Amino acid sequence: MWGSLAAFAVFAAVLTVTPGLDTMLVLRTAAVVGRRAGLAAVLGILLGCLVWAVASALGVTAILTASRIAFDVLRIAGALYLGWLGVRALWRARRRMEGRPEAGGQPDAAGGTEPAGRHPAEVGPAGAWAAFRTGLTTNLLNPKVGVFYLSVMPQFLPAGVDPLAGSLALGAVHVLEGLIWLSLVVVAVGQARGWLTRPRVRRRLEQVTGVVFLGFGLRLALDPGIR
User: What is the pLDDT of residues 114-123, one digit of tens each?
Assistant: First the structure.
């Protein structure tokens, strides 16, 4: 079992540090909203991974590969949600270009605003909760995550090991690696806060985030995933 855990840890580590939607979401949230919100987004993402791991262990995600309709419903919902996040990010960037956010406060993780004058690092529980929901929802509405757990995890389960216990152990490894990596992203963003909080830099970050989210949403919508 330990050999399988080590092999999966190496495999999962490569996937974890590869730049993708989760990293971009955490980077944007930590830079624009603050460190607390960034960590909340990390917890939301990791809870989503844990839910998918449990669902895979219980065989729930097998529905996604067995049912074309179930997969497509979740896929389209995820694509629409990512599209909505992308449009909101681009809209915020445009408002920044017009000078409006300074009068209305700081953007929160859900696309609203924090009270004017509050530093992003001082975002309150409401902003952190919004970031947590965004991270969790983004992860749960991505059927690719569920299919990944269902198709990859069984390959690392040694013979004779209880599938539920083994899958949960592998899922815990993935979650732990995600926690370490994404927390490092939040810390790195915190170190560069002085540069990232410049109006022009934050506007460009919103624009890049919007394009990335729209790209991921379009890719998810057009990718059939399963046959």
Answer: 444 444 444 5
Interatomic CA distance for residues 56 and 45, integer angstroms: 17
Q: Which is more confidently placed, 147 or 185?
A: 185
Helix, strand counts (H, E) of the chain: 11, 0
> Residue 122 is encoded by which pair of tokens?
């001082």
Q: Would you put residue 115 in left (φ > 0), alpha (ψ -120 to 50) or beta?
A: beta
CA dihedral over 58, 60, 64, 66, signed as positive or negative:
positive
Bridge partners, residue 107, by sequence: 113
CB 24 within 8 A of CB 214: no
Report d(CA 173, CA 142) in Å as an integer: 20
What six digits make up the tokens of 146? 């569920």
pTM of the model: 0.71
Distance between CA atoms of residues 37 and 167, nearest Å = 30
State yes or no: pLDDT of 176 exceeds 90.
Answer: yes
